[in-house]
Amino acid sequence: MTAKRAGTIAGNLGLVLALLAACQSTGGLGNDRRGPPPPPGTPHVTTPVPQKIVGHRLMAAGEYELALRAYYRAAAEEGMTPEILASIGSANMMLGRLGQAERVLRRATELDPKSVAAWNNLGVVLLEKGEVAEARRVFQLAFALDRGRSAEIRENLRLAIAKLRNSSYDAADNNNQYGLSEHEDGQYLVLTRTGNGTEQ
User: Fold this and answer.
1) Which terminus of the chain has a lower count of CB atoms within 10 Å, N or C?
2) Chain-centre distance for alpha carbon 76
């Protein structure tokens, strides 16, 4: 046997031993289908959460200012849709910015006259501003569009009717807090509550 042939055999033997070692460490050739790891520094790619959803989650958490910012980013992503307008208006309302909330919610109802959340939340704004008669009309419309399924809208309508009958009602003395309830379309209905947290 020549030295050259002996060297070739030795090299092949070394390759076989290396393959056997790989089989033992991985459970067999071809069993690890994960592929090679990504190069160092490769960013982990995830699907970004839409800013509209981020805003809804922040509303649920009571972070209304952050929710408002998320809704504006959503508008940059999707355009100023009726749903995003309604969400911006609702966030402004929760922050006590009634004038801004009314303007945005009215625009939302113009673009989507069937938006239950926009009509309901506009009604709450009007109620808080002392425009009780219009608030009742708006709640009635929201209630009809929702086919009477929402207890929150029913309660808001009941409250508006009660205040309309009470001529001594003064909006300036009204120190209400608001409650939120997620509607079936993912938007939030606002429920007017008294300052001590009980329904009025």
Assistant:
1) N
2) 15
Secondary structure letter of residue 96 according to DSSP: T
In the chain, the amino acid numbered 138 is V
> Are 151 and 186 contacting, i.e. CB atoms less than 8 angstroms apart?
no
- Homologous superfamily assigned to 51-193: Tetratricopeptide repeat domain (1.25.40.10)
Rounded CA separation 133/196 (Å): 25
Band (197; pLDDT cuts 50, 70, 90): very low
Averaged confidence pLDDT in the chain: 77
Q: Could you tell me the end-to-end alpha-carbon distance of the chain, in angstroms, rounded to an integer?
A: 104
**How is the chain split into domains, by residue range?**
51-193
**Residue 153 near residue 140, CB atoms below 8 Å:** no
Handedness of CA 129, 91, 187, 178 (dihedral sign): negative
Which tokens sit at 197? 């947290």
At residue 150 the predicted structure's pLDDT band, cuts being 50, 70 and 90, is confident
* Full-model pTM: 0.69
